[in-house]
Amino acid sequence: MKVRVKLIGPLVYEAGFSEKDVELPEAATVEALLAGLALSQRRPRIVTRNGRAVVPQEILEEGDRIAVSPLYSGG
Amino acid sequence: MHGWTGSILRVNLSTKSHRKESFSEDFARRWVGGRGFAAKILYDEVPPGTDPFGPDNKLVVALGPIAGIPAPNTGKAVVAAKSPLTGFYGDGNLGTRVSEQLRKAGYDALIVEGKADGPTILYIEDEKVEFLPADEIWGKGTYATNDHIYGKYGAGVGVLNIGQGGENLNRYAVVRSLEGRAGGRPGMGAVMGSKLLKAIVVKGTRPIPQADPQTMKALGFGDLKEVGRIDKETGWSIQSTTGVLAWCNEVAGLPVRNFRKTRHPEAWKIDGERLNEARIATYGCPNCTMRCGITIRDREGRESELDYENIGLLGANLEIFELDQVGSLNYLCDEYGIDTMSAGCVLSFYADAIDRGAARGDFMFGDAEAAKKLLTMAAHRDGELGNLLADGSLRMARAFGRGSEAYAMQVKGLEVAAYNCKFIPGQALAFGVAAIGAHHREAWIITFELKNTTRESYGPEKAAKVIDLQRIRGGMFEFIVACRFPWIELGWGLDNYPKYFNAATGLNWGLEDMWRVADRIYGLIKLNYLREFPNASRQDDYPPAVWFDPANADTDGPIAGKVLERDKYDGLLQHYYDQRGYDQRGIPTRATLARLGLEAEAAAAEKFGRLT
Lengths: 75, 612
Known about the structure:
By secondary structure, chain A is of the alpha+beta class. Chain A has one domain (about 1-60). Chain A is built from two helices and five strands, in the order βαβαβββ. Chain A has helices at about 10-15, 30-35, and strands at about 1-5, 20-25, 45-50, 50-55, 65-70. A five-stranded mixed β-sheet of chain A has the order 2-1-5-3-4. The radius of gyration of chain A is 12 Å and the shape is globular. Chain B has a domain at about 5-205: Aldehyde Ferredoxin Oxidoreductase,  A, domain 1 (4-Layer Sandwich). In chain B, helix 2 packs across helix 19 and helix 19 (about 460-480) crosses helix 23. The two termini of chain B are about 35 Å apart. Chain B contains 25 helices and 17 strands. In chain B, the strands form five sheets. A six-stranded mixed β-sheet of chain B has the order 2-1-6-3-4-5. Classes of the chains: A alpha+beta, B alpha+beta. The interface of A and B includes residues 13, 52 and 71 of A.
């Protein structure tokens, strides 16, 4: 299945892309998706699926939009 | 007493006189500095009913025990006065060399009283105070004013100045400093203008007093370097605050079309990636190693320094998605010295009111050229429309009528920052109970709400988080005085700040001591509000009514069909009041005031308003 991944802020430069489709096996989790993105684990982040925050174990579906962002604090 | 200079400089523009006053150790420990000093001085010296534009209002510039010392992000000052926008205590902070220079001159605060008999530059050099004519720069913008002052006094001096917005008493005129710094959203620049005070220039030549200069030096320089290293490691300042625009667009939290929409397909055109690509320079405050001022070339070819609030409110919220045009609107606000956030909300409200038949005019969302003209009119109070726009969205709504106050995006008269809380209950509360009106500076809990709670919750955990952040962001960082960014954006440890404070003062404070001072300051600002508005009610702590309007719900996306629920918001507000020890109106109870050590201030308040 295919999901759309959008990276936010400095993660764009860390992973080397801003937004792209990612191919995943059926029933892949958020955690599995993140593991393939070459992002540092050192900093806290927030992951949303179609605009709603998710936990790492959540199972993804075809066509999901996943945004990965640093844990911004609103300036 | 270490850490503090122990002195305040009081200047009277009417009599062209000045006095150096000392303050007690008790005063220093109770109020610490910055927002604490400013709130206390204005409470004691500016009685309720004072005309914000009259000579009896006072402008306070206040610093703290670590202000100006080389340590992470200490190059800031608090500017405060009775606000002409909100009618009670108002303040803001900005990056400025005044922080270091005023302390080197021997003062922890400056109080400006009276009104000059002509445009004036106030020049302070240690004990020397001069009242100099400002005729040749009156009428000029903040960039030309800054250049003029640097040309005359050298670029190392501390400068606070105003543009045409402040001169013409635009109610959301700010105080400006350096290349792109601004502070005092609720009209502190207009208070300077009302006093015919074009600029304050400060030069100090003495060392800043510290209890343990060796420790401070080692800690401060080492930590400045470390903060810079973390910034580089995380890449935060590549997009700085502007990275959050793309995220808000993902989670339906972006202000679009006067906050009626929460997302926009063209938002990417003005986001942090595009800003970074367009960057021609980066500016920052003194003592900062994570500079956040991304500067681009605007449509007219000028340098314009942008942050998230600027692109959010002068871009997305006006449906202007050409980055150089957003840069132009931002440049004009900075040049005129008016608040970009309020300006964005004022223009979006005007377009919305025209759309809904509440106002006459032809201004439309997306029209950048018309927006430029309107900003110029607002800064100069040009004609009937300029006068209206200069008064802020609440006064505009009262003039328009027809229910338009519901979508004037403000709380207590101060316009909302660039976070659309149509369905973000905790952040709506944060705006509702911010000390001076809808400012994002004091508590921002959106990532917490989405990640650690459910978005739909109106539970006590959200009220508790707002209070936690008010103590840290609206409290400690505003009274010690330092920028919150190393902590909030890079995770720099909060416990570092008591270390800096203790090295400067010789005290042995922990974070709990900081929170006590923070709560005292919040309590005092509430008393200030009660004195000015004896009929204060919990309705004053509600966000704009349009966020409760089901007809305004998104039709698709993450929050389709959802808006804030009034009864649930009221419950959340009650959680906040209960945890704070405030009464049903949101005013601290007598017991709370006693616990905060505010008995004398409470007695002063009771002459004007009721306590429970």
